[in-house]
Amino acid sequence: MRATRGAARAHIGAVALGAALCAAPALRPGTPWTTLALLAGLYLACELLGRRPFPVGFIGAGSFFPLLLAAAFLLPPQAAALVAVPGSLVGRAGKPPAAARRIWRAAELAVAVWAAARVHALLGGPAALGSPPDLPYALLPVCAAALAFSAVLAALDGSILLVAEQLPVRRAWRGLLPRSLAPHLVHGLAGLMMAVLWNSPYGPLAALFVLLPMYISCWVYAQYHREHAAHRATIRALVQAVDIKDTYTRGHSERVGRASVLIAHELGLDRERVEVLRFAGILHDVGKLGVPTRVLRKDGPLTPEERRVIELHPEYGHEIVRGIGFLGEARAAILHHHERLDGSGYPYGLSGRGIPECARIVAVADAFDAMTSTRSYRRGRPVPVAVEELKRCAGTQFDPQMVRALARGLERYGWFGAVTADDAQLPPPREADGAGPVPAPLSPRPPEGTEDPR
To answer: Which residues form the HD-GYP domain (predicted)?
Structure first.
């Protein structure tokens, strides 16, 4: 561990030295210190605002990149490298060690801005930003500079993950550039607008108006992600509670959510409904929180009274999630995922199209995972066998359209969640009179009176 910390410090020092070498020529005469001081002061003010609690501190670090890229377009490379340094050294550090994180942030941004300014200058960008600006040619050096900025940041971010976090080489840089390239190109265009206004007769004050809509859009984006993070936290807490109570079905909820999404994609449902169906699949058994643990974990067949108790879990689940507004139609799926197409299901005996579509989807996903997962009393079946069984029960228990959609999805994408590590830790299936493992029942729901609703 000490060796890792030492390597990380050495790496940060090397990048900081590189940043200092990039900025050193700014000490020579001819540096536009007034423009540099204005841009550095503005970036410092933005970072200080970013440290304030909500609602002032809603602006993420990426929101300031248009300002840094504007500096790359307005200043020589050595001067542009200095713009991010004061703000980065006082900005939000996140986890400790704060000093090392701030020095790293200042160094990597200085190098990235220097690279962007260098590429911009090599392609004649400063001349294209004259008065009037040479449009659309000015877009070429701007986009190239944004690409250089993004590539340098991705390279440095991956390098610190490799050294400090000891991620494997194949994972350290995975996805860094593809995820950041499009946002940085947008930041580059915003930086171009700032630079054009800065050089216009209206001066630097007019350039600030470019930042305002950027910050508002970032605030809306941050609010959206906060809301979704709260949704995920709510669902995660409920699923963890079910998994703790019913250890035999641990991991089942997540797999039903994946299978539900697979079906929804094959049906061509829109993105919002796909997300709701994922929630429905994950939470379909949340009502088990209302079922006594001794019943859920009972070895052996259930008594008629115990069966009636377990068959109340869809109604319990619906009551638990009734007040969670973002679930939408997922609440109906939780209530009706044990209804059958022929009307013999529970809790209300709905039939045919009277069963909500989302419930018909989750019913197929639930039965599929129940058949392919290993349980305490039987081993999981192969995926093709489970699909054939679903097809056999289509039209009576399951909606044929949903079964066909699942079969198409499995054929196209495969299924990698049939048996999880949690399943593998379960005891082997019980033996019957020494004759070997008890075979799985021939149907996900045997005739009434023999089904185990767990």
So the answer is: 227-422
d(Cα 234, Cα 246) in Å, to the nearest integer? 19
The CATH number given to whatever domain includes residue 184 is: 1.10.1760.20
**Domain count along the chain:** 2
The per-residue pLDDT for range 219-274, each reduced to its tens digit, is 666 676 777 778 778 888 888 888 777 766 668 888 999 999 999 999 999 888 99
Residue 399 located in a structural domain = yes
Q: Is 161 exposed, middle or buried (0-12, 13-18, 19+ CB in 10 A)?
A: middle
Long-range own/partner contacts, residues 122-125 (CB < 8 A, 24 or more apart) = 125/73
Residue 129: the pLDDT is 87
Map tokens 């185990």 to a residue.
452
Q: Is the dihedral of CA 375, 378, 384, 390 positive or negative?
A: negative
- Tens of pLDDT, residues 170-195: 788 888 888 888 889 988 988 998 89
CATH number at residue 259: 1.10.3210.10
Do 377 and 438 contact (CB within 8 A), yes or no? yes
Q: Are residues 332 and 402 in the same domain?
A: yes
Half-sphere exposure of residue 212: CA atoms within 13 angstroms, side-chain side: 5
Instruction: Identify whether residues 179 and 34 lie together within a single domain.
Output: yes
- Residue 63 DSSP class: G
Banded model confidence at residue 417, pLDDT cuts 50, 70, 90 = low
Q: What is the pLDDT of residues 96-136, one digit of tens each?
A: 788 889 999 999 999 999 999 999 999 999 998 887 888 88
Query: Do 411 and 373 fall into the same domain?
Result: yes
Asked whether residue 195 falls in the same domain as residue 282, the answer is no
Q: Which residues contact 211 (CB under 8 A, 6 or more apart)?
A: 46, 66, 67, 194
At 375 the three-state DSSP class reads: strand
Cα 414-417-422 angle, rounded to 5 deg:
165
Same-domain status, 180 and 88: yes
Tell me the whole-structure pTM to 2 decimals.
Answer: 0.56
Contact assessment for residue 255 and residue 243, using Cβ atoms and an 8 Å cutoff: no
Contacts of residue 155, defined as CB under 8 A and 6 or more positions apart, other chains included, come to 173
Domain boundary (192, 226, 260) is at 226
Look up the domain containing 23 and give its range.
Answer: 2-226
